[in-house]
């Protein structure tokens, strides 16, 4: 995100294509009052402090922070947008984890709105159908995204921005066409055979070319626009989605398509609040806080902890230019990711609210720091090996800072 970039406000000559804000050319940005980073330039502007034009330059929206919204308002608006622009990694059918830090109070809270398994799910349901866990109605879990957004908005929103204003810019993008990124073009190309074989997925094929949409094309999503508009204008969107008319539609389509999500599953879904997990094994009085597993907080804080053990206060660590520091950082990441799936018991304890520092006793940190060599990679299986591995899907990442 660059402070010099902005969307063009002049009319577009080619109504079938759109050029969105390019990604920042710098790895670092400096901002005085607020910053928004996302996986898509349009979404950063929806959540940020700039004037935003729609994809067809017809309607102008004031971005959420300019309206007086806080970081939570902005994050919700951004995530609705990513569900539109980056459907491969975000959307109403999924879930999220959110960490909220209040500087005035000096504490964090975490919201776990990840999707959950339906009541009828069991461990052997895909034993003879490996593709069934990835494709089709049975692969779907109970979505948590909307319930989590509403919870965050009600409890931590600024109350200066209406709920509908967080959603309608994204609905407008759907109405007028979502600009396809190069990455989305590649994702759709890989999935083209699946799109053609599944009647419900044929909207991803461009009728003008009989091929998947290309980068710069405008992808219309009228059905999603109608859904978002209903959610935006509902007095109780969670009731409508999980217990009302949308729940009826979801349950019916699941039953017709061979899925196992029921109205009872939807009605029983509730996001979870967690108190902060903290780590203070850093220089000075710095503290990290975040969400418990399955978030990656346990990984990121372990990386920083190992580096802090190797470079305590008073020791210079030039992460950009010193090859030794870069080497140590890479090795620290290898350590941390090897531990990600290696301790199910500790992860379970953390989810139950245990405030212990995950994998971060001073002894363990010292061991890891000693094991990382200066001139070679360290590859001892006891340190780097995983107990299990997983083929993870795509993720969307959002970070919003605001000085209130």
Automatic annotation (TrEMBL):
UniProt binding sites for L-glutamate: 114
GO molecular function terms attached to this record: glutathione hydrolase activity
InterPro entries: GGT_lsub, GGT_peptidase, Ntn_hydrolases_N
GO biological process terms on file: glutathione catabolic process
Name under which the protein is recorded: Gamma-glutamyltranspeptidase
Domain of life: Eukaryota
SUPFAM superfamilies linked to this entry: N-terminal nucleophile aminohydrolases (Ntn hydrolases)
GO cellular component, one term: plasma membrane
């Amino acid at each position: 995100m660059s402070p010099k970039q902005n969307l063009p406000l002049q009319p577009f000559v080619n109504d079938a294509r759109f050029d969105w804000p390019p990604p920042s050319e710098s790895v670092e940005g400096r901002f005085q009052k607020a910053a928004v980073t996302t996986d898509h330039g349009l979404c950063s502007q929806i959540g940020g402090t700039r004037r935003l034009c729609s994809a067809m330059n017809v309607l102008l929206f004031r971005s959420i922070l300019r309206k007086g919204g806080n970081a939570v308002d902005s994050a919700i608006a951004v995530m609705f947008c990513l569900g539109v622009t980056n459907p491969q990694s975000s959307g109403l059918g999924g879930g999220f984890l959110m960490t909220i830090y209040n500087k005035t109070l000096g504490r964090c809270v975490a919201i776990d709105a990840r999707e959950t398994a339906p009541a009828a799910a069991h461990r052997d349901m895909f034993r003879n159908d490996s593709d069934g866990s990835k494709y089709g109605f049975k692969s779907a879990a109970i979505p948590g995204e909307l319930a989590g957004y509403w919870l965050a908005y009600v409890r931590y929103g600024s109350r200066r921005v209406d709920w509908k204003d967080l959603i309608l810019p994204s609905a407008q993008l759907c109405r007028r066409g979502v600009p396809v990124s190069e990455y989305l073009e590649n994702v759709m190309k890989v999935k083209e055979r699946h799109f053609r074989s599944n009647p419900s997925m044929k909207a991803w094929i461009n009728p003008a070319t009989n091929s998947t949409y290309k980068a710069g094309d405008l992808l219309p999503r009228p059905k999603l626009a109608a859904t978002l508009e209903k959610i935006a204008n509902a007095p109780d969107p969670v009731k409508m989605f999980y217990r009302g008319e949308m729940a009826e539609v979801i349950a019916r389509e699941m039953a017709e398509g061979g899925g196992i999500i029921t109205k009872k599953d939807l009605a029983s879904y509730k996001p979870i609040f967690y108190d902060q997990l903290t780590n203070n094994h850093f220089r000075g009085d710095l503290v990290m806080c975040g969400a418990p597993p399955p978030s990656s907080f346990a990984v990121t804080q372990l990386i920083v902890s190992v580096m802090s053990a190797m470079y305590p206060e008073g020791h210079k660590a030039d992460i950009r230019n010193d090859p030794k520091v870069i080497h140590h950082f890479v090795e620290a990441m290898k350590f941390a990711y090897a531990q990600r799936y290696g301790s199910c018991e500790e992860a379970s304890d953390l989810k139950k609210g245990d405030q212990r520092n995950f994998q971060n006793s001073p002894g363990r940190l010292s061991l890891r720091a000693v094991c990382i060599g200066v001139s070679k990679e360290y590859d001892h299986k006891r340190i780097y090996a995983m107990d299990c591995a997983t083929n993870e899907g795509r993720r969307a990442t959002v970070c919003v800072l605001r000085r209130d």
